[in-house]
Every structure is written in structure tokens, then in C-alpha cells.
Amino acid sequence: MKNVNIMYTVIISFLLLGCDSAGNFGVEGSPAWHNRTSSEDKAAYFGKICKSYGFKAGTDSLYNCIAEETRQSVKSGRAAMAAALQDLGTPKTDNNSFDRNDYNRERSWECINKGKVYISGLGCS
């Protein structure tokens, strides 16, 4: 189970963090991106987004938009990471075939460690 959690952590980290458009670790808006990106680069990134909304350069409205976009990006990145990590360790028992296979694999190892064989739906025998 511990190895499965580690594997999920690695997979989730790459999915959530990935790489940005320049090939750097952490997609734009991810916690990793916010940690490694300078304030100037964030302002430029979110400035482009705000300008696409129609805000004009050099206005207070643009600066307020940049600040709000930055806050929302940090908040959503943290929420996505927290949600992904919260799910770790929860047995996968729904009808999703990947989750079901993963669940059966875990039960199988538990049975093997007891010197028994796992039969799906029936348990160890």
C-alpha cells in the first residue's frame, strides 16, 4: 500500500506540476510555477491574460486584475494539489477498471503475504 501511495504521489505531481510552455518544471499557475517564477514574470504572464479581457496597459484596473488573477491562480493550484493528495490512500473500489485493477492488485499482495491466493470478489483462499 505504501508503494502504491508513493506511485500515486509521483504521478499526481507530474500531472499537476508538469512543465510550462518553455519546458520549465511546473505548468503556469501550479504551486511549483508560483514558487520558481519571479513577481515580474508572473505580472507579465497575468498581464497578458488581463489585457485579453480588455484592460488597458498602465491602468489601475489592469493592476487590480493582475493581482486578482495571481491570487486566484495560487488558490486554485493549492486546492488542486490538496484534493489530489487527499485522495491518496483511499482504497479504489468503484467501477473504474484502473481503480478496480489497482484494488485487486493490493488485495492480491495482501493474500500472497499471508501465503494465500486472492480470488477477485471472494478474497483470500
Unreliable residue stretches: none
Number of helices: 5
By secondary-structure content and strand pairing, the structural class works out as mainly alpha
Helical amount among residues, as a percent range? 55-70%
* Mean pLDDT over all positions: 75
Q: How would a textbook summarize the main sheet?
A: 2 strands, antiparallel
Structure overview:
The chain has 125 residues and is mainly α. 64% of the residues lie in helices and 3% in strands. It contains 5 helices and 2 strands; from the N terminus they run H-H-H-H-H-E-E. Strand 1 and strand 2 form a beta hairpin. Helix 1 (2-17) packs antiparallel against helix 4 (60-86) and helix 3 packs across helix 4 (60-86). The longest helix is centred in the middle third of the chain and has 27 residues, at 60-86. The chain is rod-shaped.
